[in-house]
């Protein structure tokens, strides 16, 4: 899962990005409104954490432009503007949630998990498909209820496929949402991760649709 963090205060930006990455997400940082608008308009993110008081373009203006241009990723507003009129304005502009500063990082992570789950149609923190399941709160992968020892990258792959279960996910989409900007980002690296996972969860749980991508499905298609 890939998250855009839009925050111009260095300490908050670092703390939020570090906490999100420790929770299994890949992050990209923007420190002003124009950069944020450009990244959100040209790249795909599973969620945006958006500050309002930004240089060069206000956060609300960024959000309104995204929504006017049809960008539908969930947006969590993170700001010192905590009065209810500002909250209403943010929600009316297209935000999905609102967290006022100062905040607990644990609450931020919980809200991020919930927004991403809801955006992909899942209400429970445990997402299942046949014998395979993940617990998004504890970053656990399970087969028939038994926890598996997986790497952070393997967890991200299972999590992305389960959030989008029953949909064939193209390799390019998986690569974009799994890897950091400095990581290996090619189809061979992705295939190697899938191969390792199949040895742990079973050969048929992650299915390959030749020429299309990968899918975790609830039943035969």
Which descriptors apply to this entry?
221 residues; Rossmann fold; alpha/beta; Arc Repressor Mutant, subunit A; five-stranded parallel sheet; single chain; four-stranded antiparallel sheet
Structural write-up:
The modification 4-aspartylphosphate is found at residue 51. The protein has helices at 10-22, 33-42, 59-68, 84-92, 105-119, 152-163, 171-178, 187-201, and strands at 2-6, 26-30, 47-50, 75-79, 97-100, 126-129, 132-135, 140-143, 146-147, 207-209, 213-215. It has 221 residues and is of the alpha/beta class. The chain folds into 2 domains: 2-119, Response regulator (Rossmann fold); 126-215, Arc Repressor Mutant, subunit A (Orthogonal Bundle), CATH 1.10.10.10. Strands 2-1-3-4-5 form a 5-stranded parallel beta sheet, sandwiched between helices. The two termini are 25 Å apart.
How are the SSEs placed, and which strands pair?
Elements: E1 2-6, H1 10-22, E2 26-30, H2 33-42, E3 47-50, H3 59-68, E4 75-79, H4 84-92, E5 97-100, H5 105-119, E6 126-129, E7 132-135, E8 140-143, E9 146-147, H6 152-163, H7 171-178, H8 187-201, E10 207-209, E11 213-215
Parallel strand pairs: 1-2, 1-3, 3-4, 4-5
Antiparallel strand pairs: 6-7, 7-8, 8-9, 10-11
